[in-house]
């Protein structure tokens, strides 16, 4: 996603023209943002794992705006079987968790788009065992 050049001001990141956004996930569950321009790389926001969340992040997709805010949401697949959707009001502020569902198997790949309908986007995942569960844009249940 092309954003703008980043400049950190306290806890908030200000985005300027022509920066690129890099999203990353860690084995201990952190979700973060880096902003890169031709001169440097700046750290953006970081979302710490929740109290009950133990799964490392295996995959990230940011192709679809499920929440219709004008900014693509971040869809995360974790090794504990959690599928999470994070939404942000602006690219500079850390996104908030708006959807979580547990499918009970470690997730290896995640994507989103129009799969079963031309009106509503779906989340499709592949598990390490090879299953391809499809998740509609509905309320989910947290992993135990």
Automatic annotation (TrEMBL):
InterPro entries linked: Beta-prop_BBS7 (IPR056332)
Pfam family, one: Beta-prop_BBS7
Native source organism of the sequence: Chara braunii
GO BP field: cilium assembly; intracellular protein localization
Name this polypeptide is given: BBS7 beta-propeller domain-containing protein
One cellular component (GO) term of this entry: membrane
TM segment ranges: none
Domain (BBS7 beta-propeller) ranges: 15-132
